[in-house]
Amino acid sequence: MRHHKTLNLLTAALATTAITCSTGWLTETHAQDTPAKTQAQPARPDRAQPDRTQPAPNQPDRAQPDRAQNDRDDKDKKHDEAVFESASRMMDKTIYGSDREELATISDLIIDHANGRAEYVVINIDRGVLDVGGTDYAVPYGILRWDHTNDRLMMNATAKDFEGAPTFNASRWASLEERDIFNDVQEYFGYESEDNKPKPSLFLASDLQGADIRSAGDKDIGDASMLVFECRSGKLVALIVEPDVEDVDIDEDKVVPFSSVSGIKDGDMMVNFDGAKLAQAHDAPDEVRSLKAEDLKKALGVFNEEVPEFKPVENPDWKPGDKTNPGNRAGERE
To answer: Exposure of 134 by Cβ count < 10 A (0-12 exposed, 13-18 middle, 19+ buried)?
Structure first.
């Protein structure tokens, strides 16, 4: 009995010793495979940090827009653009003098049907209480200058410069006596017409506005509700026609070239197209001022007409009585 107890105790001791050895081996093995958490990590090389106390290195220059150049380009583009206006609006415009003050008001335009241009402008200068209603003068359109910046007409003169100028009387316009004043006008303003004689093809814009439009077959096909001018050149480029064509229903006003006017007789405009052609014309814009050169090109193209060149007729250095200014000769305006 005692022998068996001793044997059991010995067996248990051996088992305990085996477990202890096994556990120690496992612990040692794990310790070799896993580095100690307290072991120092190898030092990493320092990354260069920017010195914020020093100015940043120069960056390559980026192309900045030249605003001054853009402004100049826009101004040049605007100066080259055609400016359209109706005769009725033209006849209400104020002309500013060399002192930048209001000088006169346009009361009418004198049109040369032969070249489709405003040759003269009838202006009214009001000198105050002693000049009731003001005084009318006919001046060459070429002495006016269109101010694109302020959108207005300018003249290099003041009211004093017109004290000796020939006056204009519209009530006597129908007579050749009144038309003879252009000899005096040309002499005073140093402005020579091409033949230096009164032209039978001169008409007042106020007489043409609202005129009957008669077709090649002498049929009434509408009224000229508006005359369309280009302000810089004084060119009369188109008519806005209010159609009234028998048996043809046309709801909108139409744009037709002034060059289609073959003659002016007894206040009527004779044109070289009929009512059917008028029906094909482009519709008129709500405002003449909104008309662009491209729009006009399309409108005139219906009649196989091209947009004329709008050459400015500006003589900013002109002064009344200056007969030596070659820019005042009408022949140089073409």
So the answer is: middle
3-state secondary structure (DSSP) of residue 121:
strand
Q: What is the pTM of this model?
A: 0.70
Q: How far apart are the first and last CA of the chain?
A: 150
The one-letter code for the residue type at 159 is: A
**How far apart are alpha carbons 98 and 103 in whole angstroms?**
9
Compute how many other C-beta atoms are within 10 angstroms of the C-beta atom of residue 197. Answer: 12
Q: How many CB atoms within 10 Å of residue 302?
A: 17
Identify whether the C-beta of residue 193 lies closer than 8 Å to the C-beta of residue 144. no
Encode the chain (334 residues) as per-residue pLDDT tens digits: 444 444 454 445 444 444 444 444 334 444 444 444 444 555 555 555 555 555 555 555 555 556 555 544 444 444 468 899 999 999 989 999 989 999 999 999 999 888 889 988 999 998 765 566 689 999 988 888 888 888 899 998 889 888 888 888 887 776 655 666 777 887 788 766 554 455 668 889 999 999 999 998 889 999 999 999 999 889 999 999 999 998 888 999 999 999 999 999 888 999 999 999 999 999 999 999 999 889 999 999 999 999 988 887 655 456 665 544 444 433 333 3
Q: Are strands 220-230 and 212-214 parallel, antiparallel or unpaired?
A: antiparallel
Determine the Cα–Cα distance for residues 79 and 146; give it in Å rounded to an integer. Answer: 9
Cite the DSSP H helix spans in the chain.
2-33, 67-80, 87-90, 176-179, 181-189, 205-208, 275-280, 293-301
